[in-house]
Amino acid sequence: MEYLEFELPIKELQDQLEKCQIIGEESDVDVTETCKKIEKKLAETKKDIYKNLSAWQRVQLSRHPNRPYTLDHINALCGDSFLELHGDRNVKDDKAMIGGLGKIGDQTFMFIGQQKGYNTKTRQYRNFGMSNPEGYRKALRLMKSAEKFGIPVVTLIDTPGAYPGLEAEERGQGEAIARNILEMSRLKVPIIAIVIGEGASGGALGIGVGDRVLMLENAWYSVISPENCSSILWRSWDQKEQAAEALKLTATDAKRLKVVDSIIKEPLGGAHSDREATFLAVKKAIETNYKDLKNLSPKEMVKQRMEKYLAMGVFKG
After folding, report:
1. Helix H segments across 206-274?
2. Contact between 155 and 210 (Cβ < 8 Å)
């Protein structure tokens, strides 16, 4: 188990508890009371830390190396029913953007999302979850196929941003993202978008338009990352914590600003601390929201989606 800097008090107590249990197992000394006291203090410390997280600490949790990624969610939701589809039929298959058909119960969904790597080799293979234009064009191809066969779409957002390389710009990165936003706004099947980790900039928006946009509790969603915001405003990454607060990027902020529709609660300690509970919460959220959307006519659904996005940013003086 890896611990973040603010989780070190939890690590210390966890280590104490393990040592206490080992002493109890390897000797005749009764350490039951001591273990109980440490367990109680550990529970209180966890509650105190995770109930009072700053915006920057939530950003750190969203990047936790043990946090479940898109394929983890899909495999947990669909099991063996997931069939991955490849390529944009134009350039190549973007490994940072994955998609395919899968079933939750008896209902088939088209799943699309960014995939990060688990180690150096897979991170390079997945381009750190940063898609090229062909990734967004692959996503659009799959969405149009879903529309053709009346299959609802679920997108899982987890990216530090679209790939900013020269070759990506030459192949039309901005146009690919803009095209996706346009086409998703008028797609005639239900779209449920879920921010499961990092939701940065146009990279997230390229698959982020939906009838329902949901966010995991410790995910973040913003026009820019705190580090990049800090480097632009203060010419250094040192102010990233201040930038994270100013950007209003947490799930609570996004819900209050009506950028997202609802928040999916995570287990205490983050999604990685109890993966099964996280997968169950995501599954329940998809099923609940699809139930609300499935009986709408395509015309009514697109109308509601358009109205939702046109209302964003509107305020009364």
Report:
1. 226-234, 240-247, 251-256
2. yes
> Within 10 A of 300 (CB to CB), how many other CB atoms are there?
10
> Which residues, other chains included, contact 316 with Cβ-Cβ below 8 Å and sequence gap of 6+?
none
Return the amino acid letter for 197: G
- pLDDT tens digits, 70-99: 999 999 999 999 999 999 999 999 999 999
Average pLDDT, the chain: 94
The first and second tokens of residue 313, run together, are 């940013």
CA distance readout (Å), 112 to 158, 161, 191: 11, 16, 11
Would you state the structure tokens that stand for residue 277, as one six-digit string?
Answer: 């509970």
215 and 221 in contact (C-beta within 8 Å)? Answer: yes
**CA distance linking residue 136 with residue 152, whole number of Å:** 18
Residue type, 186: R
Residues 6+ apart with CB under 8 A from 39: 17
Assess contact for 88 and 144: CB atoms under 8 A: no
d(CA 252, CA 164): 29
Query: Other C-beta atoms within 10 Å of 237: how many?
Result: 14
pLDDT attached to residue 30: 83
Q: What is the token pair recorded at 201?
A: 């900039």
Longest dimension (CA), the chain: 73
pLDDT in tens, 181-208: 999 999 999 999 999 999 999 999 999 9
Distances in Å between the Cα of 22 and the Cα atoms of 8, 14, 29, 42, 43 are 21, 12, 11, 17, 20
For the whole prediction, is pTM greater than 0.85? yes
Q: Are strands 212-216 and 262-264 parallel, antiparallel or unpaired?
A: parallel
**Number of H helices and number of E strands within the chain?**
14, 8
In order, the DSSP letters of 148-170 are HTT--EEEEEEES-S---HHHHH
